[in-house]
Amino acid sequence: MKVRGKHVILALVLLVAGFLIAYSYSQTESESRVVQLQDRSWEKEFYYRKQLLDIEERNKQLRTELEERLEEIQTYESQLAESEDVIADYVERKKDLQLLTGEIPVKGPGVEVVLRDADYIPDEENVNNYIVHEPHIHKVINELKSAGAKAIAINGQRYFSNSYIACIGPVISVDGVQHPAPFVVTAIGDPEVLQSSLTLKHGVIDQLVSENIEVELDTSPSIEMNARLSGEG
Questions:
Q1: Which residue stretches, if any, does this entry annotate as coiled coil (predicted)?
Q2: Contact at 8 Å (CB) between 217 and 113?
């Protein structure tokens, strides 16, 4: 009986020990799983934070690059605008030169000045003192040029900076082409400015009248002049 009692006690002890060991193992495994889950959660959080920081850094780089590109574009646009202004200026200057040299026809508002020989010539007076001469036409042309005339013509023939005028008796020769009186000098420019310049007190028209030349002055909203003919001038 004593032997059997000892066996029973030993069995109980072993059973309780096994239970304790099993329980302890179960708790340990559970805690290990919790720790593993916590570790994984921390790893994921660290990973996502790192990804977020990388994205923010990349966005910062992209913003910097974008600002640099925008500055480059603004610089190019400014240079292009300056180039366009320069080109437009060259085109305008070329056009002005072509107008002066007569390479292209011209049309615009301006004035018309008609110079005529005197209708009445007193007896025993010198006829040459009552007809239009080369200096009279030069006075009108010079005044018109000073007032900003863009183009000038005499009896429809373009007058240029290298043109020459000669008086041949009762006619005027312009670049070798003869024109009889009356002489019509047309000029394209600001009509008011041209007219005011010619009609100044003691100005060109007053001088011409005092020299027995009949003068008519009119403004015109549209005057047309042809281009220089090939070989002309």
A1: 52-93
A2: yes
Per the CB < 8 A criterion, the answer to whether 204 and 111 are in contact is no
- The answer to whether the CB of 100 falls within 8 A of the CB of 160 is yes
Residue 198: name the closest of 140, 152, 148 by CA: 140
Per-residue pLDDT of the chain (233 residues), as tens digits, is 444 555 556 566 566 556 566 655 565 655 555 555 555 666 667 777 777 788 888 878 888 887 887 788 777 777 777 777 777 777 777 766 666 666 778 899 999 999 998 887 777 778 778 889 999 999 999 999 999 998 999 999 999 888 889 988 788 999 889 999 899 999 999 999 999 999 999 999 999 999 999 999 999 999 998 876 544 55
Residue 79 to residues 2, 70, 87, 111, Cα–Cα distance (Å): 114, 14, 12, 42
Check: pTM over 0.70? Answer yes or no.
no
Q: For 226, which DSSP code?
A: P
Q: For the chain, how are helix, strand and coil distributed in percent, rounded to 5? A: 55, 20, 25
Query: What is the rounded distance in angstroms from the CA atom of residue 134 to the CA atom of residue 122?
Result: 22
Q: Do residues 179 and 148 make contact, with C-beta atoms less than 8 angstroms apart?
A: no
Coil, strand or helix at 228: coil
48 burial type by CB count under 10 A (0-12 exposed, 13-18 middle, 19+ buried): exposed
